[in-house]
Structures
1.
Amino acid sequence: MTLLLPAQASLNSWVDQGQAIKLTTNGLLDTKSDFEVEHVRNRPVTGDVSAEDRTTTSLLNSPVPPGEEVIHNLIVSVKAFNTVNALRRIAHRLTRESAVLFIQNGMGVIEEVNEQVFPEPENRPQYMLGVISHGIYQIKPFSLAHSGHGTTALAILPRRAEEVKPFFESSALYLLRTMTRTPVLAAVGFGPTDLMQLQIEKLAVNAIINPLTALLDCQNGDILHRPSISRIIRLLLAEISLVIKSLPELQGVPNVNMRFSIARLESQVIGIAYKTAANRSSMLQDFSQGRPTEIEYITGYLIRRGEEVGIQCVLNYMLKHMVKAKERLEGERHGSLLPLEPRNPH
């Protein structure tokens, strides 16, 4: 297994931490050091072409240089907003036969990747999606704590939605088989529609717990048993539930209305908040470090999908911009952002 590290800071941290990944589970430390590590740099190109062409089409059509072999199986676990830039650096090493597994928070990443990295369908690798319910948090770079056992849901995506009997590349089948045979992952394979429903369920929960805990600066369990917060949760879920039940790709799927009802989504939120009561959400951790959040791929995704089906998510829109405002304020405090208005206020 090879770790691809795009940032020099990550490479420095890898060396500083003893060139090993440390995972603590139930107080027991497990250290793994048998990894190859590769520092992935931006690939220089020349010619009078646009910046986007330099990082996508020209790289895809150029040969793989010596020392940069083809990548047959790739797992992408970077923050959603970093995905396009990360893949642009290695797009020339991915072929149609390669498998790319996305395991990330939020939704809408693959659409961006198709538009900005693999615009030509015939050049796209085989995509896979994963949804993880394990509780994991970072202690420091390359040192993690496994705080709660869960499962890993996986699916290979067909190249075209209308395919009745899709053909899956051998690399994708190999990666699926390998992960489902790794006991600690508790991985199970699903069909694309079933996986999408699991992904949307997690998205709905994240759209409540992440922004509320980040804005209120509290642990996940602190949003429970507070009447004012409970009312906010129900109002937000009313919009979220309506959007999900109106998605065209879920029309005709059995039990969608019940599965994504306000009451069931609320029970999902409460259950996860109980289970992770002592945890700080990833969005709150982003705020504390002055980092950008994934709000555009969580609440933002739901707002965009709502607009597509004629639903205006007014409360979720307000919540998203409250998060973006605090994100900018925290970034300025940490010196990682300049106090400038973004180009696109929407």
Note: The first strand starts at residue 2 and ends at 5.
2.
Amino acid sequence: MRLQMPYISSSGDGISSSTNDSFPEKPLDQMALPQGGKDHWTQKAYSASASFVPELANTILQWLDLQPEDVILDLGCGDGVLTAKLRNSCPSITGVDASANLVFAAKKAYSTVPGLSFHVQDCRYLDRWMNFHEGAYTKVFSNAALHWILRDGETRMSVLENTYKVLQAGGTFAFEMGGAGNVAEVHTALIAAISHQGIGIERARKLFPWFFPSEATMKQMLEEVGFTILKMKLEYRPTRLTTEEQGGGIEGWARLMGAQFFDGLDSEVKKEAAVKEVCELLRTVITHDEDCGMFLGYVRLRVLAKKPA
């Protein structure tokens, strides 16, 4: 399946590769998504429901161990907040993401920063990117994105193979993603709520949009590609949600992160009923009595792998 590129530019990604160049006044929702794909992501929704994501990346940033000479590729850069932070410690960093809406926001926010560029590109097909060059980066980084990128079993290994190819010999791949058991309570509530709208539990299971591997599974996959594992850790990290007053809370999180579940329903009435059921099922389960904060059971898989010299 070829990716649709409505805008043509010298970089071939639909938005100019230089952050100092102009960019479209309005993003196209399906700019770099597979045919029929839908861009659920917006900077406003992401900031309201998931602003904690870049704030909780300190451990994997320590593992990344940026050096003054590093040239970095950020897979699944989102709105660029964390990517821009990394630019403070290295001369060049490139962010890629399938969401035209989020890349548009990143371009708009950081267009004047030298050595920082953003591109619309489905990371499942990194080798189709016009700027794909073997051995171009000293390090590849990804935070809270690979559980989306690797969801497709047909392209899962090719993502890791292409990551290996873009690294220089001796380069490292540092990433954090959802691991086995991540947000299990939400997963259960989503399947229940969707199946109650008449599509059946088996079809509801097939709408699962993430890949949450165990340590053993990820180790096997990376070593099959050629990586050497330097560090790996699976950690249970209960995570406080943003507040409902901020437009987040469990409803904001479910609408954004669970959008592909709800898209399996054939009417807005059913979607709204499913969202309401998810929230009602989870509200007392995830709310802490002492301060009424809502926490989800995040399980993070962190990995530092090396391409042999």
Note: The two ends are 34 Å apart (CA to CA).
3.
Amino acid sequence: MNSMRSLVRLVNKPLTTNYLAKRTICSTPASCSDAIFAHRDTPENNPNIPFEFNEDNKKRMKEILKKYPEQYKKAAIMPLLDLGQRQHGFTSISVMNEVARLLEVPPMRVYEVATFYTMYNRQPVGKYFLQLCTTTPCQLGGCGSTKILKTIKENLGIEVGETTKDGKFTLVEVECAGACVNAPVMAINDDYYEDLTPETTEKLLENLKMDKPITPGPQSGRHTCEFAPGVYTSLNEEPYGPGFRVRDDL
């Protein structure tokens, strides 16, 4: 009974500080990755699946190791992981363990690298790995990456992070691809395809479905990132030279 009275007195007591009026710390929702850092054994990715570099890649590995002093050969973790991924199709746990064995480092050192860099695909991906840039320049450049993303989803029938049932295509979104002047841009395996439109994107995908060769670079017809008057440039007059808008008496 006494505790109830104390509670009533506390409620009726005027507050010297309005705690409800205090500003609280707010933040935008965290963007979750479509991958996890921890390894989970699957039928196609587990330590019991043997992996060994083939003869050609063993020769490449020897050339790579020549770049590093013997006591610092652990610095070759990244290029050897890339070599293993190109041979195996993705950076499996067996690829990581083999790299650790060859470089004589604890496997955890290799796992740390493979889970940090997004260039290492730790799960199987399609024959054609589509990496569409959806950051601000690509969203604003040309027709915008949003339309390109919609075109890819509708054409292939998959969402971001998924692989087509035939195993040919995997689609992911990436941060800045560094080709902003040629936006929108998409990397397919090792090559960039730029100045994309829904029409040129569909043409690329249809050719890849039939395993036909496609030409990397701008799909608009321009050479690399050269300007196209009235289309791909904001430079419509003679550029100003040194001293522009500087006082004459300085």
Note: DSSP finds eight helices and five strands in the chain.
